[in-house]
């Protein structure tokens, strides 16, 4: 369930804050304010290199690996 939540939420702030470092950091603030588990917040932060969050769990590694791939697949689908 956590993996699905991270997958769905990891770029939810991108449209409003597309530039680093606001993208991911502003979203993390929103998630924390809403009581989202810190493990999920850290996983989302880890997909952006500028946050310097270690990718030390399978969830963080997977999100980083598929983030660009999912954009490519979407582009091909369009």
Structure description:
- The mean pLDDT is 95.
- The chain is globular.
- It is an all-alpha fold and 78 residues long.
- The longest helix has 20 residues, at 58-77.
- 63% of the residues lie in helices and 0% in strands.
Break the fold down into its secondary structure elements and pairings.
Layout: H1 2-9, H2 22-33, H3 38-46, H4 58-77
Helix pairs in contact: 1-3, 2-3, 3-4
| DSSP strand content | under 5%
Count the E strands. Answer: 0
Coarse structural class: mainly alpha
- Unreliably modeled segments: none
Radius of gyration over all CA atoms, rounded: 12 Å
Series of H and E elements: HHHH
Helix content: 55-70%
**Overall outline:** globular
Termini separation: 28 Å
Largest sheet: none
Number of H/I helices: 4
**Averaging pLDDT over every residue, what do you get?**
95
Q: What is the compact description of this entry?
A:
The protein contains 4 helices and no strands. With 78 residues, it is mainly alpha-helical.
